[in-house]
Design a protein that fits this description.
3 domains; Immunoglobulin-like; TIM Barrel; Oligo-1,6-glucosidase, domain 2; 8-stranded parallel β-barrel; alpha/beta
């Protein structure tokens, strides 16, 4: 008998019989029992899965003790955790803010000072760019110690103990979590710094116990099919050390780890466990396509790499479910989707090809490129529990790897306005968003409208929310200090908060206008789950004037449960009037003004409108 029937019976003095009550109780008890059994058996299932995965990579019996060590350490970590469970799928509703702590506001205390400001902006997740101990030859992606935060970021002397540094970091996490802001950070899993103690030992000779933590060869003839990632900066993937060569995919001071050694796998798993104990909410797994190397291949996206990620995910699911594992894989979407697995690898991944297509669409005033890159032929449907992360530059650059040579030329010619903005010989452009978009408030806001309303989780790079410009002085200082011409340092400059706050207080400044627009958009986005979880449906648009050869309006529905939002965005510098959507007239509420609107809709140059359809 349902609860409604019981209520009805009681109202008319007709209570359920004892037999009926017994059936209700038994049904509730069985549901409870099934849920309880599921909770109790899931850890066993995960352990069994972990064992199977381990044996796929390391089938030799002598490697079993390494897995046994990992199992024990997982249990120990689980017993230590005292944090609240993570909400399922929390990353779908996130608005992420990406920053270098020292460049944002010097230290963690400086970041704490700005947490309220970030929350008011609409941020609910921080992605902290590299913060671990490092020689800082590659902005911290060259890690020297996986368990130690750079003391300078905590405002502490270099001699400070790890325990004190962890206390300070946990204090920051508490401040962020108290404001409803989650925290993730970068872990470079593919390589370390050459100053990492493992590599210092490894290069001592073939008999050193750490030798096989890295990949050594007598010559450079191995892995010949492997492409160069840093064209113009690194002429080879091999670097000589004594009579041997070590393998690296990035800079010559970043030797690649050797995951064929199970001890390396154990060490990286220990790193994840360590930061779980501190209360971290997720990991951005840097450079994951390159983890496993195999002769005769290009050493990218290999099956063994997916097994490695399944092991990482099983570990996270066992110790603290819904801890985010975010794939940093600059690959076509069809490859990135494979990093989701069957919801047993990464929870989310970056959509690299979408970013340049947004810029191309703005350059040529044609929505076609964005629509094509999100078509099922290019971007396969992803599992319901997974998510794309979207960005207008992957923190450092407008990446052009994942586009055709023709599109690369169009985008590079349009946006690379200074020779020193070029990165990787035409495969990237390093410039702030405001510089790329001509310091035009309308274009900047339009780009954000596109990112905020397409399917995925948006990422904002520090300073872009108030139209930060290139820092030429910082770039030239780095070039002089290191001798490396790395244009990414144009966009890595420190913020001057006195200057920034002065600009934000001036309502006529570009900084203030852009910031106001972003606040408006995020206030709407954070009131609904439709943008983070809803379906995308393209619309056919009828314009009042004769249809131009291109499609200047980027329009689509976002649909979730009973809510239907219509997004219309004018990519051109010409006013357009939209008479019909899918050959129908449309009415609804303008989410920015709260006013009732109906077609026809007139959009000024670079104008956008979000409509809640009646």
């Amino acid at each position: 008998m349902s609860a409604n029937k019981i209520k009805f019976a009681a109202t008319y003095n007709c209570l359920p019989t004892c037999d009926e009550l017994s059936l209700i109780f038994i049904g509730q008890f069985l549901r409870y029992l099934i849920a309880k059994i599921s909770i109790m058996t899931k850890p066993i299932e995960i352990k069994n899965r972990l064992q199977t995965l381990w044996h796929q990579l390391y089938p030799e019996p002598e490697h079993q003790p390494v897995l046994s060590k990992l199992m024990v350490e997982m249990e120990d970590t689980l017993s230590e955790l005292h944090f609240k469970p993570q909400a399922e799928g929390w990353y779908k509703d996130a608005v992420v803010y990406s920053l270098y702590i020292d460049l944002f506001n010097h230290t963690f205390d400086g970041l704490i000072e700005k947490l309220d400001m970030l929350k008011e902006l609409g941020i609910n997740c921080l992605w902290l760019l590299p913060l671990l101990e490092s020689p800082m030859r590659d902005a911290g992606f060259d890690i020297k110690d996986y368990r130690n935060i750079r003391a300078s970021l905590l405002g502490l002397p270099d001699t400070t103990s790890q325990e004190v540094k962890q206390q300070e970091f946990r204090k920051f996490l508490t401040e962020a979590h108290d404001r409803g802001i989650r925290v993730i950070f970068d872990v470079a899993m593919n390589h370390t710094s050459e100053e990492h103690p493992w590599f210092v030992e490894s290069r001592k000779g073939p008999d050193n116990p750490y030798r096989d933590y890295y990949i050594w060869n007598k010559d450079t003839n191995k892995y010949q099919e492997t492409r160069l990632l840093f064209k113009g900066m690194c002429p080879s993937n091999w670097e000589k050390s004594g009579d041997w060569y070590f393998f690296h995919r990035f800079f010559e001071f970043q030797p690649d780890l050797n995951y064929k050694n199970p001890q390396v796998m154990l060490e990286i798993c220990r790193v994840l466990l360590f930061w779980l104990r501190q209360g971290l909410d997720g990991f951005r797994a840097d450079a994951i396509p390159y983890l496993w190397k195999e002769e005769g291949t290009d050493c990218e996206n290999l099956p063994q790499t997916h097994v490695i990620l399944k092991i990482f995910r099983a570990l996270l699911d066992y110790v603290r479910p819904n801890t985010l594992l975010l794939a940093e894989a600059c690959q076509p979407p069809v490859e990135v989707v494979r990093y989701f697995g069957n919801n047993d690898e990464c929870h989310a991944g970056y959509h690299f090809p979408l970013m340049p297509m947004i810029f191309k669409s703005l350059a040529v005033a044609d929505a076609t490129s964005v629509m094509e890159v999100l078509s099922p032929e290019v971007t396969p449907e992803i599992p319901a529990d997974n998510q794309w992360f979207l960005f207008l530059r992957l923190h450092d650059e407008l990446t052009l790897e994942m586009v055709t040579p023709e599109d690369r030329k169009i985008i590079h010619d349009h946006y690379c306005k200074q020779p020193h903005w070029d990165f990787r010989v035409g495969e990237g452009i390093s410039a702030r968003l405001a510089e790329l978009l001509d310091r035009d408030e309308r274009k900047i806001a339009l780009a954000y409208s596109i990112m905020f309303t397409l399917p995925g989780t948006p990422v904002i790079y520090y300073g872009d929310e108030f139209a930060r410009l290139n820092d030429d002085a910082f770039y030239h200082a780095f070039k002089k200090e290191t001798g490396k011409d790395d244009s990414r340092y144009l966009v890595r400059g420190p913020l001057n908060w006195d200057e920034t706050e002065e600009k934000l207080s001036d309502k006529n400044s570009l900084a203030s206008k852009v910031n106001k627009r972003i606040r408006e958009m995020l206030a709407i986005r954070n009131q609904t789950k439709t943008f983070g979880r809803g379906q995308l449906k393209w619309v056919n648009i009828t314009l009042f004037t004769s249809n131009p050869p291109h499609q200047p309006i980027l329009g689509y529905y976002r649909i979730h449960e009973k809510e239907q939002l219509l997004i219309l965005q004018n990519l051109s510098d010409t006013m357009h009037t939209i008479t019909r959507i899918d050959d129908q007239t449309i009415s609804g509420e303008n989410l920015f003004t709260g006013l009732k609107v109906h077609s026809p809709f007139t959009l000024k140059p670079f104008e956008y409108v979000w409509i809640k359809v009646s």
